[in-house]
Specification:
There is one protein chain. The chain is globular and about 45 Å long. The relative contact order is 0.25. It is about 25% helix and about 50% strand. It has helices at about 15-25, 30, 120-145; strands spanning about 5-10, 35-45, 50-60, 60-70, 75-85, 85-100, 100-110. It is α+β, with helices and mostly antiparallel strands. It has one domain (about 5-145): Alpha-D-Glucose-1,6-Bisphosphate, Chain A, domain 4. A seven-stranded antiparallel sheet has the order 1-7-6-5-4-3-2. Helix 1 (about 15-25) packs across helix 3 (about 120-145).
């Protein structure tokens, strides 16, 4: 059963500052509790991650997945290349400047490869959404020194 969610948050930073944090894939485990480790497997010519291998833990399950990123000036998206516990994962950040802040819209769609009760999937997705918005905001502000 595929599930999806969308959330928006306003972050006191420019889109470039937010993308800088997102492009530091190796540091994701320091601010994202779902990730135990992150390893950049390949990079684009500009140095941004192209494929990243993550070891993630949620609801007592650990999974290794490889995500492929696509970068733009106004956001980033990724598609799952491989994983053990998921059939698919597609996600994106769209960044829209609003004065000296940026509206961040995060969308994700996932399909587990094993049947899970709906309440477990919703709990996992809630944690992912909190990390993708609230924890991202805290990380961006801490990098800025605010």
């Amino acid at each position: 059963m595929a599930v999806s969610d969308t959330r928006e948050i306003l972050i006191e930073a420019t889109p470039a500052e937010i993308l800088d944090v997102l492009s530091e894939a190796e540091s994701a485990p320091s601010w994202s509790p779902q990730y135990e480790s992150a390893e950049v497997l390949s990079r684009y010519d500009d140095g941004k991650p192209q494929q990243v291998k993550f070891v993630a833990k949620a609801a007592g399950m650990t999974d290794t997945m490889v995500l492929e990123y696509t970068w733009a000036d106004d956001g980033v998206s990724w598609t799952m290349v491989s994983a053990g516990q998921m059939k698919s994962q597609d996600a994106s950040y769209v960044l829209t400047p609003e004065g000296d802040k940026t509206r961040v819209r995060f969308e994700i769609a996932v399909e587990p490869s094993i049947p899970l009760p709906g309440f477990i999937v919703k709990k996992i997705l809630k944690g992912v959404m909190e990390t993708a918005t609230d924890r991202l905001r805290k990380q961006v502000l801490s990098v800025q020194g605010n």
